[in-house]
UniProtKB/TrEMBL annotation:
Protein name: RNA polymerase sigma factor
Residue ranges that the Swiss-Prot or TrEMBL entry lists as coiled coil: none
Keyword DNA-binding: yes
Entries under InterPro entries matching the protein: RNA_pol_sigma-70-like, RNA_pol_sigma-70_dom, RNA_pol_sigma70_r2, RNA_pol_sigma70_r4, RNA_pol_sigma_r2, RNA_pol_sigma_r3/r4-like, WH-like_DNA-bd_sf
Species name: Naasia aerilata
Pfam families (alphabetical): Sigma70_r2 (PF04542), Sigma70_r4 (PF04545)
Record's keyword terms, sorted: DNA-binding, Sigma factor, Transcription, Transcription regulation
Length: 168
């Protein structure tokens, strides 16, 4: 890498790293992940010298697009889908609740596989105990749409659970 390219890369980092980091923290809420994403984004810029030849605004757009795509890739990764965070660890395992806990995890994973619209309606009606009319009012959609999303959401949930080996 030439001295000019090194200067340009440093300039790119100095000008865009902090706003890029804030953007990724806004997307993820995770400061450590934001550090990793920004580092990977700048590494990709270093590997593509053509980015350095662009105008500052074009380079900024490129950097933010790459960072956003890295966040999306992280959210789609198996690590993210199967990783659960908790505030505190339980002291002892409760043998009577293990099956219920495993079932709730399966349902939570299956719900995560649904579209946001289906998941939202299912959560409002079944977990929130709301009626069709209450759900329609809260979500500002027609009651018929709530019924339709509920029907197709349950169907998709059943398929997602079957894919996870749950029968019945």
């Amino acid at each position: 890498m030439s001295d000019d390219e090194t200067r340009l890369l440093r300039s790119l980092r100095d000008e865009h790293a902090a706003p890029l980091w804030r953007y990724v923290v806004h997307l993820t809420g995770d400061r450590a992940l934001a550090d990793d994403i920004v580092q990977e984004t700048l590494l990709r810029a270093w590997r593509r010298p053509s980015v350095l030849d662009q105008s500052q605004s074009s380079a900024r757009v490129w950097l933010f697009t790459v960072a956003r795509n890295l966040v999306i890739d992280d959210r789609r990764s198996a690590r993210h889908r199967h990783e659960l965070t908790v505030e505190t660890l339980p002291d002892t395992a409760d043998a009577d609740r293990i099956d219920a806990l495993l079932e709730s995890w399966l349902v939570a994973e299956a719900l995560a596989a649904l579209t946001e619209e289906h998941r939202t309606v299912l959560v409002h009606v079944y977990y929130g105990g709301r009626s069709i009319a209450e759900t329609a009012a809260e979500l500002d959609i027609p009651p018929g749409t709530v019924k339709s999303r509920l029907h197709y959401g349950l169907r998709a949930l059943r398929l997602a659970l079957q894919e996870k080996g749950v029968t019945g």
